[in-house]
Amino acid sequence: MVSGILTQENGASLILDESGVRHFENRAIWDGYLSHWSGKKVYARELVQRDYDSNEPILILWPDEKEPDEPFIDLYYNERLIKYFTSLLGHTAININGSIFNFSHLMNENEIMGKEEYLYRPALGEFAPSPNNDAFEILDNGRAYFDKFGRNFMRTIHRIRIYGLDTEKFRAVLNQSLKNILDTPPDPAQPEKYRDFSMVSNNCATVIRDAFQVCGFPEIKGRFPRDLFISATYHLFNTPALNVHFTKLPQLIVPEAPLSSVSPLLNPWNYYRWNELRIFKTS
User: Fold this and answer.
1) pLDDT tens digit sequence for 109-139
2) DSSP symbol at 259
3) Could you give the CA distance from residue 213 to residue 237 in angstroms, rounded to a whole number?
4) Cα(201)–Cα(229) distance, integer angstroms
5) Is the pTM higher than 0.70?
6) Which of 5, 160, 188, 249 stands 20 to 30 A from 36 (CA)?
């Protein structure tokens, strides 16, 4: 991993560290990074996945952001991707001290990853949308376009950061949930999908909801991402022993992704709860 200023000069892009050493000068740096972070300090490293044009390891960059010094949990509600019907209700994920647990109907998206990969993967190689239809596609030759680049480039993300929870207990519960999913025998007809996934009863929101309930918050409810997020926000803000902060991570606009959209609430009580929480909202 290197750090330095993302620099553009004479038609080239590179990372210039504080000693004046030039890194990745002859490598492809995604235009999305250049449009948002040129002239700013970033971190960078190689991924195992390869760029389809150069066949070199893809470079991932991420901004210089201070991480908390104390244990924390971030709950994310990702707005919906308007080009996918299956994204109508949005998505949710949870960050335990820097390890992000993601749950999905696709087996390869049930995973733990670092913040930089979850939020800031570039739209290159297999992470990019297909050049044929700007969406998910696997070509006849096996080349995959998963349209799965950094979530903050694909959508606006609503986040609550929670201090005061037993993060190790949460981690243990979520690790077991992930293990149960990965140990589930696949459906031979659709091996790429999680066999027991259900849009209503076993999805990204219900796994995280169940973890909150096991960890002492039975009042947190919700079958769908935004409903769960508002229920959790409401009850956690009203728990005096916790320190909770709400913020919004605006979508980092790039040509590869249309603007995301807030998904509908299906529990009418959550309109009331969200209105009660208006004093905590930030833009």
Assistant:
1) 999 999 999 999 999 999 999 999 999 999 9
2) P
3) 16
4) 16
5) yes
6) 160
